[in-house]
Design goal:
alpha/beta; Rossmann fold; 3 domains; six-stranded mixed beta sheet; three-stranded antiparallel beta sheet; 24 helices; 9 strands; 49% helix
């Protein structure tokens, strides 16, 4: 799944806070569209600090009742196809199937929201679990068209033969147009998909399983059959099953040309780092050293921003967990790659400097997090120079000093005769804002596109709004 991306330009309505957030602090309501997209590109439908999975699901359904069905469909396509969000797109697709009738675009939507065969399985599974049968015709036709797009390799990879709801069950339900690949699937004649994953599966069924897996992993690494991102996803497997290949693994991880060619960003190393820290395998120190070096090399892929930048990182108690990890690495990357100043804030705010000799990851890990509250006012009270842009990383649950920093932000602008662009990252998509002013952008989600989106906003304040709204819903007949 993808981790972090963006939202649209903020509502330009100035004025006083008109709601309270989860901490009781004064804040601003988002428009229904803004909040809806925010949730879709930030949530994986799990329990969060302030909200349970059940509450998030209920809120998505509620917001779908407040926006046009076409916007719901566009947002789901945007979340799935641009940012790789799966579960929420399945939920929205299921709700559209239930609530939208006699629209010419629905069949095309169900076709396009499916990127992998198991997307169709999940959408069907959601609809059947929540609403049961019969299935709407538009859903059957759209998912059928999607399933007919896939070749034998794709169907074999996601057929889930050992699951309770198999791909062949989905085919029997929606009855897609017949293709040679689907015919083989239904008849049980589909050959196993030949991927590096199946090579490992086959090793797992050998008589000498441990030795076969060791040989398989070593061969995959030494023959360079894993792409760069696949290497990152499987560092623990290589350490576990093929420790003799660790030197080759490290050499590939630190290959500068491969890093440039893959366009990998520093944030994409997080999962590999975290999974190594959970174990105590031989060779871990050597691989961690390689990952540290690789993250620094990947700074070359970070786009440049003109002018001066301040990054303000929320270090309060509610940031614990994934937001803390993402926020601290983002801050370190901006300091290292863009030359930004760093400020940390909770009850108050202060500037923080890094040791230039530390790696990016080491710098991120040295940012301390507190158990205090969240004071957005302090950012602008402590800022001591004019900035062209201010990047704020938080869960947006400010409450100290009343919450939204309307007056301190205005005072800062007057004090330094500056009108910075403010990128306000909501790391949890909880539905309230801290800034209603012009040139302030509420952003949410996390992916390798986030920096590209920031560059777009630097050039065009309405770029993201247009990006979502410009998605065309095919007007083909159902």
């Amino acid at each position: 799944m993808a981790k972090f991306s963006i939202l649209s330009a903020l509502s330009r309505k100035a004025g006083q806070p008109n709601t309270v957030n989860f901490e009781g602090g004064r804040s601003f309501t988002q428009t229904a569209k803004l909040e809806f997209v925010s949730i879709l590109i930030t949530t994986f439908l799990g329990d969060e600090f302030y909200r349970t999975e059940k509450q998030t699901t209920a809120r998505i359904r509620e917001l779908m009742g407040k926006v046009e069905p076409e916007f719901s469909a566009k947002a789901a396509l945007y979340a799935r196809n641009e940012h790789g969000m799966r579960s929420v797109s399945h939920l929205v697709a299921g709700e559209i199937a239930k609530g939208v009738k006699a629209r010419t675009w629905t069949k095309s939507f169900f076709d396009r929201v499916v990127r992998r065969p198991d997307d169709a399985l999940e959408i069907l599974g959601y609809y059947l679990a929540v609403y049961g049968r019969p299935l709407p015709n538009s859903l059957k036709k759209g998912l059928g068209a999607a399933l007919a797009r896939f070749d034998e390799h794709q169907l074999a990879k996601y057929r889930r033969d050992h699951g309770t709801f198999k791909l062949v069950d989905a085919v029997n339900l929606v009855r897609p147009p017949a293709t040679p690949a689907l015919t083989k699937l239904v008849r049980g004649e589909l050959a196993p998909a030949q991927t590096w994953e199946t090579q490992l599966t086959q090793a797992g069924t050998a008589d000498n399983t441990a030795e076969a897996k060791s040989q398989a992993w070593a061969q995959l690494v030494r023959e360079r059959k894993l792409g760069y991102l696949a290497l990152l996803r499987n560092v623990r497997n290589v350490l576990t099953h093929a420790p003799d290949a660790v030197d080759e693994l490290c050499a590939q991880l630190t290959n500068e040309q491969a890093i440039r060619r893959s366009l990998v960003f520093p944030f994409q190393f997080l999962s590999a780092v975290e999974v190594l820290e959970k174990g105590n395998l031989a060779g871990t120190d050597k691989v961690m050293e390689a990952l540290n070096a690789a993250i620094d090399l990947s700074l070359a892929n970070v786009p440049k921003f003109e002018g001066s930048t301040l990054v303000a990182l929320d270090c309060s108690g509610s940031m614990a967990g994934r937001p803390q990890t993402i926020g601290s690495l983002f801050a370190a990357v901006f300091v290292k790659a863009v030359g930004a100043d760093l400020m940390v804030f909770s009850d108050d705010a202060r500037y923080l400097t890094f040791n230039r000799r530390d790696t990016t990851l080491t710098s991120a890990r040295r940012i301390g997090f507190a158990s205090g509250g969240t004071n957005f006012n302090a950012i602008f009270q402590r800022a001591n120079k004019a900035y062209d842009r201010i990047v704020i990383l938080s869960d947006m649950q400010g409450w100290i000093g009343g919450g939204a920093p309307v007056a301190p932000f205005a005072d800062y602008q007057r004090r330094y005769s500056v009108r910075p662009r403010v990128y306000s990252f909501d790391l949890k998509g909880l539905g309230t804002l801290q800034f209603p002013q012009e040139r302030v952008y509420c952003m949410a989600g996390w992916s390798d596109r986030v920096l590209e989106i920031m560059q777009k906003l630097d050039r065009d304040p309405d770029a993201l709004v247009r990006e979502v709204e410009a998605i065309a819903l095919d007007q083909t007949a159902n």
